[in-house]
Each structure stands twice: as C-alpha cells, then as structure tokens.
Amino acid sequence: MNTSSIITKLKETKLFQKLSGLHPFRKLAETERFQKLSQTAAGKFLTDYPLMVSVIAASVVLGIIFAVQKYTPAPEVTDTPPAVTTTLPAQTTTTAPLHAEIPSSEATTEKTMTETRPPQAEFERVEDSYFNDALFIGNSRTVGLSLFGSMPEQTTFYATVGMNIYDLLDSTAQIPPEEGPEMSFSSLMNGQKFGKIYIMLGINDLGTGTSESFAEYYKSVLDQIHQMQPEAIIYIQSIINVDAARDAQGDSINNANINEKNALLAELANDDYIHYLNVNEVLVDENGALNADYTSDGIHLGGGSLSIWEDYLRSHAVVKES
Question: In this structure, are 145 and 269 located in the same domain?
Fold first, then answer.
C-alpha cells in the first residue's frame, strides 16, 4: 500500500469525517494535525513493512500494465500477403527503330500455326509395292492416272469424270474407272481395308461456294473417311494448277482460285494420319502455271507427264513403323 492509499483510507475514518463540520480555524488546526498524523503513520508503515510495500508497489505496476494491454485495441489484420521479392535474370533488350514495321496478323497466324502443329512427317522413297493397298479417289485427272499410268495392278481407283467433293460420299463409280462394275463409295469403304488413301478433288469445285466452305466440307469428308478406314494413311493431293492459257480465260478455273484452296487444304493435314502433298512442285513452270509441255488441254496431264506425278508420289511416302 502506497502513501496515497493510506491517506485515502484515513479520509474514510470518523476523524476525517468529523473535521468536515468544524469551524474554519479549528478545522485548519485539526487538518494540520491530521496531516502530521497521516505522514507519521505512513512513514512508520513504510519503515516497518518495506517488503510488503515493495510487493504492493509491484502489484500496482503489473495491474497498470495488464489494464493497458486489455484496453489497447489490437492491430488491424489485413488479408494482404507479405510482399515477395523476385530477382529475375538479366535480359538483353533490343529496341526496334521507330520506323520498324509491326508484324501483320497474317505473319502472326502463320507463326502460331508453325508453333502449334506437330512436326512434319519425314517422307521416304518407296517401291511400287507400296501402292498395292492404296486407294486413289478423284476426278478425270485420276481417271487418266488409272488408264494411262503405271501403278500396280492391285491399286484401287475410285474416280469419275466430273467428281467433286460434295458428291463423293453418296456417289457410285466403275471400279476400275470406265471398265469395271459400278459400286457405291460407301460399299467400297466398308467392304475393303486400305493402307493408304490418296485424294485429289477440287478442280470441279472452283465455282461452288467459297474457299472456306470448300475446305470445311473437305474436312468433314476426311473425318468420315478416317472413321471408315481408321488404319489408313490419308494423303491430300494439291489441286493441280492449269496452264497459262487456261488461266487467262477469266472464269473460276484459274490459278489464283486454285492456290487459295490449296493453302486451306494444306492446313487440314495433321502430320499424323493426314498428310498434304503439293504435287504442283514438280508440275508448274516458273510463273506457277501448269507446264504447257505437260498438257494438251491446259487442265489434264498428258500420258507422257503422268510419270512425273507418279514419281513424286514414290518419293513422298510415309512408312509406318512395323
């Protein structure tokens, strides 16, 4: 107990209460006597009980500390995570000149396709026996390959003059072309198993729809062929260009139209079970038109030039690992 506590206790005694009703002069005298008595009592208490005074003082200090902690508001807690400092490796930055051209959307698209498509399959040169279990699907150009080419006798041809991509699935044809019995396409696909399927269609579709709708329907045909022949390697052959004279006639049968469609056909290849063969690589001249020496009508290959087409196919084959 400290001095102030003792004085407080003394104030509660009858002596102090009695002083409140005295005459001012007597009250002053009694007050002085009361203060001396209080000081004497407090001093005697501090002298006689030093240990108790120390304990009381310590208790008072601890009580004050607890009271301060109890009524001090807790710091506000936020959900902000601690900052994380990450040191990045130094990079060398090259600033492009102000006049540098911004890459076009076409270049960006081409880059994206190159990055996302699987690696292109490696083509090998094969012998004629590779085509023993092959099926060739096409129009009059493929009819010419069947009639005047040198493919093995076991090779199957499903082709008619005027065949187009939109009619293929519901069509019928003579097998072999112009010689054998009629058979529907679905019957052929469901009745025989093929290891390779070569498709060349599009010259008769140049005036129908847009290039985009053509490619979209072409893809749907590929999907159905794959469902019917899941083990077969499918080759999309490019639409062969026409010669310069035919290109100059100004109708839908022109090389700009053919090139646009071929570009979309190339995108249908997945380099897994569908591959794109750009036959034009060996058939066109320096201007991109069908070499005039290879055709008599500007569209169809002559008998002597079919071997160029066949040799290209022999050197661009995918061989499955056994």
Answer: yes
